[in-house]
Amino acid sequence: MKAFRAAWLAAVGVALIGTAITPAPVEAQDAAQGLSRWQEGRHYRRISPVIPTNVAPGKVEIIEIFWYGCSHCYTLDPFLERWKKSGKPSHVEFVRVPVTWNAGAKLHARLYYTLQALKQDERLHTKVFDTIFRTGNGLLGRDEASTLEVMVDWAKQNGIQEKAFRDAWNSMWVSTKLRQADDIVRRYRAEGTPFMAVNGRYSTDVGMAGGTQQMLNLINDLANAEKAR
Fold this sequence. Notes:
- It is a single chain.
- By secondary structure, this protein is of the alpha+beta class.
- It has a single domain, classed as Glutaredoxin.
- Helices cover about 60% and strands about 10% of the residues.
- A 5-stranded mixed β-sheet has the order 1-5-4-2-3, with helices on both faces.
């Protein structure tokens, strides 16, 4: 009996020792190593309290808060488009949220969601930037009514039927998305654009990260750390 008890205790001890020295999963190790090159408070900020996300389990949400009238957003846009195609981790869900700070920004935000309602946002998002910054057409009128006419003309030039555009522009879906965008921008306390948020826990921008490519590397590392968490 004593021999059996001694053998059992020895087996338990070996098992416990084995458990204690079991290394962390490779995914977690890689994520921690990637994040170790960044300094919290310098390259990114922690968001408190954490803001709930709206993505499927196993996904990590990355938000870009932007404005069509922002030259820095325009400069960043081609880098984000390339990242979406070849640099974005598969577990990342990328979401754009337009600011609604003032009358002009709200009208540009309505344009973004109108294009999204028509499933034309991927095709024409960059075209909006190009129209504003390359042709000098700010896509704004004197008020909302005249702005709508400016945007209808632009939409028709880009292959969207006038009735479809007007219906989407005035839809409840677009109005709801605008209210949600306003809430998101306020909750993240975004005071400038472009503003990047990772999984409701971290925020950064090009200046904090030290450059455009550095920022893309950082949001990937933060997203990988969130996935492994």
